[in-house]
Amino acid sequence: MTDAPRGPRPTDPLIALRPWEAPEVTSWGRLPMNAVDRRSGALPLDGDWRFQLLPTPDAPVGGSWSTAHVPGVWTMQGTDDLPQYLNVRMPFPDFPPNSPAANPTGVYERAVDVPAEWAGRRIVLQVGAAESVLLVHVDGRPAGISKDSHLAAEFDLTGLVSAGAPSVVRLTVVKWSDASHIEDQDQWWHGGITRSVLLYATDPLHLADVTVRTSRDGSLRVDCRVRDAGGALPEGWYVSGELDGLALTQDAEFDRFNREDERVSDFLGEARLRTVVESVRTWNAETPELYDLTVRLHRADGTVADTSRQRIGFRDVEISGRELLVNGERIFVRGVNRHDFHPLTGRTVSYDDMRADLVTLKRFGFNAIRTSHYPGDPALYDLADELGFYVVDEADIESHDHAHEIADDPRYLNAFVDRVARMVLRDKNHPSVIVWSLGNESDYGANHDAAAGWLRRHDPTRPVQYEGAAKLDWAAAGDATDIACPMYAPLEECVAHALSGRQTKPLIWCEYSHAMGNSNGTLADHWAAIESTPGLQGGFIWEFWDHGILQRVNDGRPVGRGGAGLYDNGVAAPGHRWAYGGDFGEADHDGAFIADGVVFPDRTPKPAMYEHREIAAPVRIECFRHEGIVLGNHQHFRGLDWLAGQWELSLADGRTLTAPAELPDLRPGQTAAVPLPFQLPEDGGEAWLTLRVTTAGDEPWAPRGTVVCVPQVRLRRAAPRPALAVPNRSVEVDDEGLLVHPLLTAAPALSLWRAPTDNDELGGMAPRWRDWGLDALVRKVAEVRRSEGRVTVHAEYACAAGVVRHVQVLTAVEGGIHVAESAELPEELNDVARVGSVFETVAGLDLMEWFGQGPWESYPDRAFGAPVGHHAVPVDELFTPYLRPQESGGRHGVRHFTLSAPDATGLSVVLDEPRQVGVSRYRAADLTAVAHHDELVPRAGCVVHIDAAHRGLGTASCGPDTTASCLVTPGVHRWSWTLRAL
Ligand code: IPT
Description:
Layout: H1 13-16, E1 27-28, E2 43-44, E3 47-54, E4 66-70, E5 72-73, E6 84-86, E7 105-113, E8 122-131, E9 133-138, E10 141-146, E11 153-156, E12 166-174, E13 187-189, E14 192-202, E15 205-214, E16 219-228, E17 238-243, E18 246-247, E19 249-250, E20 269-276, E21 291-298, E22 304-312, E23 317-320, E24 323-326, E25 329-330, E26 333-337, H2 351-363, E27 368-370, H3 378-387, E28 390-394, H4 403-407, H5 413-427, E29 433-437, H6 446-458, E30 464-465, H7 467-470, H8 491-499, E31 507-512, H9 523-532, E32 536-541, E33 549-552, E34 567-568, E35 571-572, E36 576-579, H10 608-615, E37 619-625, E38 628-633, E39 643-651, E40 656-661, E41 671-674, E42 687-695, E43 707-709, E44 712-716, E45 744-751, H11 758-762, H12 765-772, E46 778-787, E47 790-799, E48 802-813, E49 816-825, E50 834-841, E51 847-853, E52 868-874, E53 890-900, E54 906-920, H13 924-928, E55 943-950, E56 971-981
Parallel strand pairs: 26-27, 26-32, 27-28, 28-29, 29-30, 31-32
Antiparallel strand pairs: 1-10, 2-14, 3-4, 3-7, 5-14, 6-13, 7-12, 8-11, 8-14, 9-10, 9-12, 15-16, 16-20, 17-18, 17-21, 19-20, 21-22, 23-24, 24-25, 33-36, 34-35, 37-38, 38-41, 39-40, 39-42, 42-43, 42-44, 45-50, 46-47, 47-48, 48-49, 49-56, 50-55, 51-52, 51-53, 53-54, 54-55, 54-56
1-methylethyl 1-thio-beta-D-galactopyranoside binds next to loops.
């Protein structure tokens, strides 16, 4: 128990009740949740409110007022209560249901002028979201209490306010409570009001709820619940409706005037409307067809008392065997986990921000969202309906730190059922919502079963999922999940489960491919398995955002709402940085684990997004056969007519030929051969054919011409390189056997180290590499042998785990130097980051051009989405500014490259075979030495890595590591390259 002093406001019943430590109290005076949208016609109460922050909920109000913006968290608005990032651990030691004595409490107050024309109407206050306990007073009188931080709370103020007169509305928000223990999500802790506040009025006779049921056969059923604020319903009310202007019919079976029918009551009106739409345009994520539904509640004289408008879609969801079907189709779930996040507000996301999130996701091939780990703003679902996303709607329940105790704690039973039920009551009419989720990481107990029971009865039209219920046995039936939705389960285990013959439920990872830092290795392996293994249907990448809060470096404060323009392209402006755990002086925090999204804090896509886009390609090159190119339509519902194409032929000799592409008319799942668009030139070497696919017209999420995917196929392999002529020239090395070259400021040396990625660190590899001393190899030259036109250097690189023998043969060739290298790794070094050469160039070489994979960053296990071609990127832009600096900017499969100055001088490197190449302004040691991007000082020259082998990225910061084929193993590695001046 906390022993906080009993407050000096004993007369206030809301305070006296101490609801912040009463889990049984989920609300008081709060109206039932419903699906009637009241946003239009409402009086918005967003803006600046009087504000004061109390040290405890029962401390006296009366100090000085400042202002706070609503919606907004006070932790981002200049108070001394700053954001804190913790993953699993609670921010206070008190056991559930207790909260700490020191409990910041925000008091928001403002006068509200209730419109005079609202006289006689029912007046309702809606608070969009407040964390974690909301107490409402109007003119000093208690109006209500609510918990459940990510859903709106509504209070009937009719008896408390007067139309045409001002009232003072006070919203008291208590930061810590019993509810915090079930809102222990992996994100920043804040306090405040995070979604809009509004006041609206209805007739006393009003639509209390509207429930829409549709099917892909065009049938529509609309169930209306009608109430009157006065109690008994007036005689003669009725409901009418229309769909896209066509009238709906009253359900004949349900006669509400028949008093014999026991369903007809005096105070709860129920009415049902129906229709069947001929030739219905069904809703799915590819073609999200919507219809406008209007429902009107009439008084006996025909006048309209209330209206509800919504956009609805016709679709079915069902589970058949181990398949999740949408409109009868086994869809693939290309999902992402999405939190409410914004770098300037912390938690509040505007309509435009939500739209931008979804547009970005659409452009990168995502078709599904899990609302991790709480329901989103109502607008998010409107946008998902409109733009086309399958939504797993998740209730606001995560009791991570005390999961086991809470799952069966009857004091929390109410809260579990309340949170699930309120989400369902609000979101049930959205076609985008195809699955309900009972929450996240809360073990599994009776409280879940209770919530699932309510849900299955109330909405039998959608499956239910809960990761915790299936955790122990993916095949178990009869529990609270219809879907096996593991988190981070290794791919092999999932495939084995699907092949075991024991699978009874569709397997869709609720979280996979942890996107922390430079990550998402093996994504393509996952999708190759998903698409070829019945029983696997996809998953949700963890996660969309890097939750970096924009922070001023000098005073450590969040910048807040005024910071627009203080970042660009993933990077904070000078003097600013993206704050992660610990940056606000938190004693307890979980560091950069909060920066694990596929987009930067400003929504700039990370390179992993391009990988995903290609994996999700709607049209693909299946193969190249003599008769031509076989194309396939990999969508579930749509033809190819919305796409346009252009062929590109990239030849190793530098040429790129283009030709318009005519995409065949293919239904989903169909393939067709098209003729090879080019006569392949006899010469030109290795040849790659790319189909650049763009939107043919404007899509709601992309203007015409937006790239959708770039599938490609190799038409011709590289020919063996001709033997190099050795002219009569010498190679210059210094006493240490290091190459002396006018374009190099540091000679090529052996590198076995990369600046550890988050996966390297948290997966335990980097600590091992450090123990081995790979970050500080000591080079000792053993022998330098000179012959005409050639120098052979034997060196030993010593580290704690042994000695790596390195041989470099430097040969003068036409126009330059050929470098042939080998490195012999002892058995002890059984998993290193890389084996390769590193050198540094003179300043001024600012442009990299290469033939290989690109143009964006790629690594051995994340290279599916980087097509082979001729690419050119300024050196400064090769680097990816991951929040915690780490290995970045690598390019996979590079065949040759140049680094040049504006006057076209510089150097070229031709590699013996496609290699991983990294060109950067930073040494690995520069990146390793700092914690934030703003601390880096770029070097004038280029740091160049050419790798014989480079370790895959994997996802070991939270999940599986890379595959065995992408590990760098002991033994002898050989590689060679030719350096020339341009
Ligand atoms: C899992 C959580 O569900 C998610 O919120 C996030 O923390 C993610 O991991 C990692 O970033 S839980 C994990 C302990 C398996």
